[in-house]
Amino acid sequence: MTDIIVATHGGLAEGMVDALELIIGKQENIWFLGLRHEDSIDTFIKRVDSFAADTDHDILFMTDLL
Predict the structure, then answer these.
(1) What element of type H or E holds 43?
(2) pTM for this entry
(3) How far apart are CA 25 and CA 59, in angstroms?
(4) Which is nearest to 34 in space by CA: 8, 65, 6?
(5) Is 3's pLDDT higher than 80?
(6) What residues contact 55, with CB distance under 8 A and at least 6 apart?
(7) How many domains is the chain built from?
(8) Measuring CA to CA, which residue among 60, 58, 36 is closest to residue 47?
(9) CATH number at residue 12
(10) What is the pLDDT of residue 51?
């Protein structure tokens, strides 16, 4: 199984995952992370690393290019 992490600026990732789950139902292998205004890059990287460390599956990262 492959886990999917959607990582974007602001709340875009959460909105994308929410819209997807409205169409196909709740998914247990899709996660979202948003870089918030109050986050430092180091904090965001630590959150990404934490998600990645919690799985033994392959990970597909999907990001925005804003």
Answers:
(1) helix 41-53
(2) 0.84
(3) 20
(4) 8
(5) yes
(6) 3
(7) 1
(8) 36
(9) 3.40.50.510
(10) 86
